[in-house]
Amino acid sequence: MIRVRRATPKDGEDFLKLILMASPYFSEIFSNKAIGRLFSRKSNLFSYTHTFFVELDGKKAGMLLGYDWKTKTEENLRTGVLLFRYLGINMILKIRDFLNLNRKVGKIPEKAYYVSNIAVYPQFRGKGLGKILMETAEGEAQHSGSQSVILDVETKNEGAVSFYKKLGFRVMEEFTVPISGKDLSFFRMEKRLK
User: Fold this and answer.
1) Nearest CA to 6 among 53, 42, 45, 47?
2) What number does CATH give the domain 2-150?
3) In angstroms, rounded to a whole number, what is the distance separating the alpha carbons of residues 24 and 18?
4) What is the predicted pLDDT for the residue at 28?
5) Do β-strands 2-6 and 51-56 pair in parallel, antiparallel, or remain unpaired?
6) Domain boundaries in the chain?
């Protein structure tokens, strides 16, 4: 039995595992503890309030973190302030990486819904759960008045790029973001909603 539900603060451990599976470079910018603390709070871009879990036979199988353009505008600064609070001096050391990432990845145009992160545990892949999560995102997008769903995916993640194309997404642009001395290459992908 498959069930999609909104996350609760109790889902923090699985959220952390899955978000680092989706975006391993996060551990180079943020501490795992900071990500966990953000997840358990409302009104920030990593909050459980923006997260959905898919379960298969009562077991957490995957998650999706997403929000619309209004939420990004309202919660972007607060997310940064909370990160400074949680990371302290370490945030100063990582400020360039954080700003580089925030400037490009996650830049959301008006009337768009952004899929920040999506991941399914390896043992649950191939069962259509990622598609179900993306359909959930599309429903949230329509509910928010968004006209499109957008996401950023690393260009080297060929499986994910192919998956998104099968769902009707198309590549809009390619860009790089310098993080911890490495250039990460991303595709911005979009699916227009009817």
Assistant:
1) 53
2) 3.40.630.30
3) 10
4) 79
5) antiparallel
6) 2-150
Contacts for 98 with CB less than 8 Å, ≥ 6 apart: 29, 80, 83, 91
pTM: 0.95
pLDDT at 25: 87
Q: Give Cα 8 distance to the centre of its chain.
A: 16
Q: Quick one: angle between helices 89-104 and 69-87, nearest 10?
A: 160
Phi and psi, residue 60, nearest 5°: -65, 125
Starting from the edge strand earliest in sequence, which strands make up the sheet with 112-120, in order? 2-6, 51-56, 59-68, 112-120, 148-154, 182-192, 170-179
pLDDT of residue 73: 95
Q: 49: closest CA among 108, 107, 4, 9?
A: 9
Task: Specify the pLDDT at position 194.
Answer: 84
How far apart CA 42 and CA 49 sit, in angstroms, is 6
Taking alpha carbons only, the member of 21, 23, 194 closest to residue 122 is 21
Asked whether 114 and 108 are in contact (CB, 8 A), the reply is yes
| Average predicted confidence (pLDDT) for the chain | 94
**Angstrom distance (rounded) from CA 118 to CA 167:** 14
CB atoms within 10 A of CB 83: 25
Instruction: Check residue 56 and give its pLDDT.
Output: 98
Which of these, 115, 39, 119, 25, lies nearest to 79 by C-alpha position? 39
Q: Which residues of the chain have pLDDT under 70?
A: none
